[in-house]
Design goal:
Chain lengths: 198, 198
Amino acid sequence: MASQEIEALTGALARLPGLGPRSARRAVLHLVKKREGALIPLLSALQAVEERLATCSICGNVDTVDPCAICADPRRDARSLCVVEEVADLWALDRSRLFPGRFHVLGGRLSALEGVRPEDLTIDQLVRRIEADGIDEVVLAMNATLEGQTTAHYIAERLERYPVRLTQLAHGLPVGGELDYLDEGTLAQALRARRPVA
Amino acid sequence: MASQEIEALTGALARLPGLGPRSARRAVLHLVKKREGALIPLLSALQAVEERLATCSICGNVDTVDPCAICADPRRDARSLCVVEEVADLWALDRSRLFPGRFHVLGGRLSALEGVRPEDLTIDQLVRRIEADGIDEVVLAMNATLEGQTTAHYIAERLERYPVRLTQLAHGLPVGGELDYLDEGTLAQALRARRPVA
């Protein structure tokens, strides 16, 4: 019953992950009631991002500058590279602030089913970065899925002849994980990678 | 670690009701990855609303047209008026599609504590609408709070001398409500308003 523009805004918000029709409506109500305090700030933030949106030509991150803020940060260890499947993975790892180096976004994972081949990912660019930038360590941070692990194996093979320390994320029990509720695959990994008690 | 613009957008989204920092970040990621499909539609929807945002001069609803879509709808019963405290209440009732008439937004509720007096609400405008528009029925749809009910009583007194059918929303058990979990006030209301079994 609201006007077309308000319905359109509700619809656009409802399509965001984490928002449904009901919460989108509450968000719109908040925006229209707080024009100066909420609507205009959100509008100008969106505009600023839309105008400057760019894919980093070095690592494949999405940012408003190219090179992205991470690649341009001199405090980052330029000799350490963390390879991820997607930009979302990069953001998740960066949020944890645990990795002090830079990133490389593959843009997906190898998949026979979906017809994704090595040349569809940024693997050649990764090799070129390793050749050119004097990289010491490459951390393979693929998802713990069949396709993620296939991709990790493929990259490990491609990098065999380079003098880099190649590591991958540990697999095992997640923090707070209860044995009772974990799948057999995770349990098998955790058991296989068991370590001496410190 | 992301650029200032992306952080600003994340912050603006995180302040919407129903979104926190984590879901705002996921939403931003979705927006930057789907520039054409998500970012630009949301941006133009926001722009359209921002440009045309208006408070309905008849009922107080917020819309992009004045009179609002509800007041302008000829299929609505113009002789039946539902009085609510806030625009949010209007939207909630309108969403249910159960009320075929029009609305009147008070802009709040009487409150000694917060110093809200009758002249701070749109009660005079309500009286004028009743005088001018040939209203038959007024439904008082205030919240079931002390202040909401005080406001309803006050309005009922003000409208005493007009030939309108004055009703208010029924109080009682909410759908799915279990006696065991309901407060005494609700139980008392439900008992007091008990009805013969049909």
